## 1
Amino acid sequence: MSNVHSDSQFRDEFLTGAARAFFTMAYVEYVESVESGDIEDDYDYPRAGSGEAWEDYVPSELPPNAFALAGQLWAQIAALNGAAGVYTLNARATEADGVVPDAEKFGWYLAMEAMGHGVSWFDNHASFDSKLPHMDVGSLTFDPEAYRG
């Protein structure tokens, strides 16, 4: 369930996708740090096995600051691409692919690219001109209690 409720369904879905990406990648890093002993925590975190998607193991409730990070991404995209920001990139993506992007997936992939995870919207879609910020998100971005769900 989304914590976002604006006057734009596109924006709500984009922010939810971006928030989910930020939280998922932080969760992965946290769980791996616990398993390696870099972080002391005796909770038994669910984790993805070989060939499984981490998204299936992350708590479904996103912490509020995941949405705050998504909002920062939204604002930084506007700063880099003009006032219309994400709407401009959405229009460019629509023109490049000939179909309107799924807003939640669009948010997920732009957040992944902003974090530098090597996953990009352009892996499966036509390219278009865009500028994205770099955002640092890691295991300590969220309170460890958020990872327990």
## 2
Amino acid sequence: MASTYRKYVSIIRTTKFAIWIAHHEDAQLWHAEVFARSRNGIQYHEAEYPGDEPRVDDLIRNALHFGHFSPRPSSLDHQFDPSMTHAVLALLRHWCRVHSVDFQGLMREAYPNEPQRAEEDFEEIVAQAEWEGIEYPKPDDRYQTRRLILALRDVGYDEIADVFVRTIRQLP
């Protein structure tokens, strides 16, 4: 089960790098996601670090040396990889707004036992997706809606995908 909730201690975004850092109290580990812009996409690196909060310079170096390349912009016409979770959530939120569906309701139904994110959290997710590069589809494209379901599954959001499918079936 993929989780959509993680409390980030720090979010750093410049023109070339985006870094998300969270601290896991139980494990006493720092979780970091680093996005480094490159010519036609990003280098993405996700890792956990023991001890003190990792230095930004070290995180950037690790992303450039150990990160994997992921093409951008994210589009429903292409395959999604785990680095594209921000884009997938932004696309789902966009779809919900266009079709007057309660996005927060979908999230609560998909993850009833997790703390719910505030609207400001999703604004930050959308900002990250747009920083990375994202293409929003035309509003009433059924093919793109089916591709969104596959994208949710590609990044491990099976619970949201299941709720989304049920929601689509109930629409007029």
## 3
Amino acid sequence: MRPTRNFIAVMLIGFAIARITTACTPDPAESTGNTYADCGVIMDDPGKLGDDVIVTMQNGHMFAFENEDGDWCIGDLVSIMFDDNGTLDITDDIILDHPRYSGWISAEEMQQWVKEAR
């Protein structure tokens, strides 16, 4: 490879990393407290386009978001960025960014998804 190609390759990789990092960072103007990421699973039929998708977290709390693309299925793992709304109460937490597909688990694994409080 010539030096010019190496330079271009390094610049493209750097740009891609910066773009990915920026895309994953929530807008601080939207935040009213601390932000955190969590992962849940879709345990019930998410319905069709425009319906609410219900996500169950491992602590048993449930959150909903609009089924914007109609591509969610039972067993899908969903990663979500939350804002704690400045409180310790989980039920008032706000979804900051579009939920992201993070994998899939079987019906047997879903039966053990919610963990007992310790």
